[in-house]
Structure formats: C-alpha cells, structure tokens
Design brief:
single chain, Alpha-D-Glucose-1,6-Bisphosphate, Chain A, domain 4, alpha+beta, 7 strands
C-alpha cells in the first residue's frame, strides 16, 4: 500500500474551464512541474484521454509510467497506474465542486515505488506532487 496525500484549492473559474485544463494532458509539460513528456495513447469518443504515457523528472531519477483515466465530466477525473519503471502505484483523483463563480478542486493521490525509500520520503514526495500540481493548475486556469 502506497502513501496517500490530498489537498484542495479554490480556482476562480467554472468547473468546465478547470476540467478543460486537467483533461488536456498534452499541455501538462507547460504547467505541471517535473513533467518532461506526455503521450496520449488512447482517447474516448469525446476526445478525452483514456491512456497516456508520462516521463517525469522525480529529482532523484527520471521515471516513466502509463496511466489509465476515467472521466465523469464535469465533476471528476481519476487515474490508475497501468505500468511503470519504478512506480508500483499511482492512483489519483481530481474532484471539482462548483462554487458559483469559482471551483473547489480536491486532489488526492496514492503513490508507491519499487525503490527502497523510507515512508516519510515517499510521503514527502506525494505531498510535493500535490502542492506543485495544485499551484500550477491554479496559475494555468486563472492565467496568473
């Protein structure tokens, strides 16, 4: 079982605007810190990503993994790990709540690696992914 982490932020935009950014995996390299490349391998009939391969600078090493996405537009996008070179678990979820002119974004993540790392380091890594992800998302959507 991996390390779990969750956090939230409020973005001054509609849920549709936020969903457009989180589901545009091709643009993640422009705003999501550490993501070096994304290749969408499969899309659904609406053009939303279903399966995508990532290459990420994880500071201690560059890692690669493939995720499988589930969409419940416009409120929820989740993913699970299909395979990875050092990642053994990477399950995540964005939940969007309409706040009448803004959107609350709840982001949760569960991550585990095949590397022998102490639990506190893995937890810190998951926390960093959440923090940088939410900051980057907010900046991207609000255009700040």
């Amino acid at each position: 079982m991996g390390q779990r982490a969750s956090d939230s932020t409020t973005i001054t935009a509609s849920p549709d605007a936020v969903y457009a950014v989180i589901s545009d995996l091709d643009a993640y390299t422009e705003w999501a810190e550490g993501i070096r490349s994304v290749e969408v391998l499969e899309r659904d009939d609406a053009g939303l990503p279903v399966r995508a391969a990532f290459r990420v600078d994880a500071r201690v090493a560059e890692i690669s993994y493939t995720l499988l996405y589930t969409h419940e537009r416009p409120d929820r996008m989740s993913w699970t790990l299909v395979d990875g070179d050092t990642v053994t678990q990477l399950d995540g979820l964005y939940e969007l709540t309409d706040l009448d002119g803004a959107t609350r974004v709840d982001y949760s993540l569960e991550v585990d690696l095949s590397l022998p790392l102490p639990g506190f380091m893995l937890k810190r890594g998951a926390r960093t992914i959440l923090d940088t992800g939410l900051r980057g998302l907010k900046k991207r959507v609000e255009g700040a």
